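Re: that chain you flagged

S.,

Sorry for the slow reply, it's been a week of failed gels. I finally had a moment to sit down with the sequence you sent. For the record, here it is as I used it:
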Amino acid sequence: MSRIATRFAQSKAEGRGALVTFLTAFDPDRATSLEILRGLPKAGVDVIEIGVPFTDPMADGPSIQRAGQRGLKAGATVPGVLDLVRALRATEADTPVVLMGYYNPILAYGVTRFCADAAAAGVDGLIIVDVPPEEADEVEPHARANGLDLIRLIAPTTDEARLPRVLGATTGFIYYVSITGITGTRSADYASLAPAIAALKRHTDLPVAIGFGIRSPEQAAIAATVADGAVVGTALVDTLAGTLDADGRATAATVPAVLSQVAGLAQAIRAARKQAA
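Prediction finished late last night. Pasting the structure tokens below so you have them in one place:
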């Protein structure tokens, strides 16, 4: 099995949901970014999602847009992000790594080359926000040939007629977007999550992780109980940003603050199903 499938199977066997975290590569600099990434598994992260900075991130809210700008200012490029993953893999062999980003940088790099280089660097999956299933044939054969999962976003507005098309082009896990709109702008409607996930599960056996709008340990615990996992991104990016100095540089508080927050999220998720039982 892939690292992604193995990790979701492991969390299920342990009777808990999985914690997926998102942080932007090179935010606020390469060294700090790598130090945080290396600390995530010990803090309790099951899947590491790394944002590839891009100048026009249409699905991202202000916090992640600013993180992308900091990453670009720090010198982030597609080769640089792949090198960051290689550096992470030098000390972390088991935790799945997913790159999340946009098609333009991949197209500029070369799709065939990108998929081969990403797999060689230790990437397990891709979330390409602006490549719909109808255009998946531009990426899917190259991803599949290199053992990369293509993870799809499914929104509350995705109707049951469209679901088979989306799910047919999805591997690894499903990223369920709990809100309509961009990341980090409001919280999820938790009353609607259970029926929405139940409806989705009627069409697929893939794990489902809920993201967009999850900020607190309590919200993460609910999401990871209703589904197979919770994705937390903007809340971590905001914590990181809050530790930077006036010039946007990392301080002594940056790494510990982010990893402490992650540990709190992981602890809440691990306790949630035990409390519900």
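What I noticed first: The CA atoms of residues 209 and 229 lie 4 Å apart.

Talk soon,
D.
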